[in-house]
Amino acid sequence: MNIGEAAAAAGVSAKMIRHYEQIGLLPEAERSESGYRLYGDREVSVLRFVRQSRHLGFSVAQIAELIGLWSDSQRTSREVKAVAQRHLADLEEKRREIDQMMDGLSVLVNACHGDDQPHCAILEKLSLGSSAQHQPQHKPQLKKTLAKAEASGAGTSSHIDLMAWIRGVRVHHGTH
């Protein structure tokens, strides 16, 4: 089958198939004489496996590990369970972090009157420890590449990484 047929059969996009090939989750497809990618039932099975793993939030590295275990007839279920347990522990930690962020943000939102006055308890709390004389005198103008990285979830802060993870889970639930 061609890439479109394989994508439909697996429930993923053709773009994702090319991406999975590029990063090594799926071996490069055989090609027809005219250069079109060709897929069989085995590749569709792997793509379904990847899709279902992504729905559970497994990382690409974890999915690669799981595919390796799936392909190894000498594996033990203990090895597979260990991968899933590590992922579950990571998710539980992320949930704790999200709960902490939500609790902190709720306090800020509840402290703000949200009226027509310039005083804002949210800004006051966020700038705690900064003097009013060091208040910024400009509105930031993000560089396009930085703004795109932020929008896609890239960044170095753990909070930004956490938000990228949240967006990733939503995207995977919604599009694959």
UniProtKB/TrEMBL annotation:
Gene field: cueR
Keywords linked to the UniProt accession: Cytoplasm, DNA-binding, Transcription, Transcription regulation
Keyword Transcription regulation attached: yes
HTH merR-type domain span: 1-69
Coiled coil feature spans: none
Chief location category: cytoplasm
GO biological process terms on file: positive regulation of DNA-templated transcription
Localisation: Cytoplasm
UniProt source species: Hydrogenophaga aromaticivorans
Protein's name in the database: Cu(I)-responsive transcriptional regulator
GO MF annotations, alphabetized: copper ion binding; DNA binding; DNA-binding transcription factor activity
